[in-house]
UniProtKB/TrEMBL annotation:
Keyword Protease found: no
Underlying gene: gcvA
Phylogenetic classification of the source organism: Bacteria, Pseudomonadati, Pseudomonadota, Alphaproteobacteria, Hyphomicrobiales
NCBIfam families hit by this protein: PRK11139.1
Ranges for domain HTH lysR-type: 9-66
Native organism: Ensifer canadensis
Name under which the protein is recorded: Transcriptional regulator GcvA
C-alpha cells in the first residue's frame, strides 16, 4: 500500500520541469504553461533545492539536462501520462449505433427528423445504413433496423410495430387541376401511373374501381418509392405510397389524395433489435425516440388533408 504520508514535490514545479526539459528553454516552457519565464525558472530552482540535485545545466541561450535530470524526467513524463489516461478514462465514451433502414424510410422519415434526435441525444452517434437488403445484426454490426414485413423476423430479435402500412394514392394538386379528378374513369385515362418496386397499382385500382377501369397505359417505373413520390410532386403522374411517408407533403398541399380508398397489403413497418443488444441503454433511447417521433408526427387529422373532388 502506498504511504499516505509520503511527501511529493509540488505539481506545478514538476510541470515546469517537464515542459522545460522538452523545450530546453524556460521562455518556451512558460508560453506552453501560460505563465511567465521567471515563474518557470523559479519553479525549477525550487524543485532542485527540494531534491538537493541539479537538473539542468544553464547556458546563455539554452538548457541542457544533467544525467540526473534526464533520468528523472523520463519517470515524471510517464507519471503525467498515467494521470492523463486516468482522467480520460473517467469521461464517458461516445456511443455509436448503426441503424438499418430502406432508402425511402431514410429520406422520407428519418433524415428530416435527425436534427431533433441529435439535439435530444448529442452523445449518441447514428450511422445510417440505407439499403433494401436485409442487414444482419451480427455480420453487419447493426444495432437497430426498420423492417418491412410481418414478424417474427428471426430468433433472438424483438420487434415493435412502428407504422401500419396504409397505401394511398397521391398526386400534385396542379396536375389534378389540369387533367381533372382521376376518380372519374374518363379522366384517369390521361394520367401516368408511377410504379415502385412493390407495384401495388393493380390491387389499388381493383379497390378503387370494383367494376374495372381502363388506364392510359402510361407507366413510369422506379426502384425506390421516394423517387415515385418526388415524380408525383413534380406533376408527372399518380403515385402510391405508405401514408406516413407523405403526411408532411399532404399537410403542406405539395401532394393531395385524389382517392379515398386505402390499401392494406398485410405487411407493416417494424422496429427490430436484438434481445441482447451491444449497447442496451443507447438502443432503448433510440427506440423510445422513434416511437415518440412517430406519435408526434402522425397526430394530424389525415381526413383533413385528403383531397375533395
Amino acid at each position: 500500500m502506498a504511504d499516505g504520508n509520503r511527501r511529493l514535490p509540488p505539481l506545478n514545479a514538476l510541470r515546469a520541469f517537464e515542459a522545460a526539459s522538452r523545450h530546453l528553454n524556460f521562455r518556451l516552457a512558460a508560453e506552453e504553461l501560460g505563465v511567465t519565464q521567471g515563474a518557470v525558472a523559479q519553479q525549477v530552482r525550487g524543485l532542485e533545492t527540494s531534491l538537493g540535485l541539479k537538473l539542468f545545466e544553464r547556458h546563455t541561450r539554452t538548457l541542457a539536462l544533467t544525467d540526473v535530470g534526464r533520468s528523472y524526467v523520463g519517470n515524471i513524463s510517464r507519471a503525467f501520462e498515467l494521470i492523463s489516461d486516468a482522467t480520460e478514462a473517467l469521461k464517458p465514451e461516445p456511443r455509436h449505433l448503426t441503424i438499418s433502414v430502406t432508402p425511402t424510410f431514410a429520406s422520407r422519415w428519418l433524415i428530416p427528423r435527425l436534427p431533433d434526435f441529435t439535439e435530444m441525444h448529442p452523445d449518441i452517434g447514428l450511422r445510417i445504413l440505407a439499403t433494401d437488403r436485409i442487414s444482419n445484426f451480427q455480420t453487419d454490426a447493426v444495432d437497430l433496423a426498420v423492417r418491412y414485413g410481418r414478424p417474427p423476423f428471426g430468433p433472438g430479435l424483438i420487434a415493435d410495430l412502428l407504422y401500419e402500412n396504409v397505401i394511398v394514392a397521391v398526386a400534385s394538386p396542379l396536375l389534378i387541376e389540369k387533367l381533372g379528378p382521376p376518380t372519374q374513369p374518363e379522366n384517369l385515362r390521361h394520367y401516368a401511373l408511377l410504379h415502385d418496386a412493390h407495384d401495388f397499382w393493380p390491387q389499388f385500382l381493383d379497390l378503387a374501381f370494383p367494376a374495372g377501369v381502363a388506364t392510359s397505359g402510361k407507366n413510369i417505373r422506379f426502384n425506390q418509392t421516394s423517387l415515385a413520390i418526388e415524380a408525383a410532386a413534380a406533376g408527372q403522374g399518380l403515385a402510391l405510397a405508405s401514408l406516413f411517408f407523405v403526411t408532411d407533403d399532404l399537410g403542406s398541399r405539395r401532394l393531395v389524395r385524389p382517392f379515398t380508398p386505402e390499401l392494406r397489403v398485410g405487411a407493416d413497418f417494424y422496429l427490430v433489435s436484438p434481445r441482447k443488444p451491444r449497447h442496451p441503454a443507447a438502443v432503448l433511447e433510440v427506440r423510445e425516440w422513434m416511437s415518440a417521433a412517430k406519435a408526434g408526427r402522425m397526430g394530424c387529422d389525415i381526413g383533413s388533408i385528403t383531397a375533395v373532388m
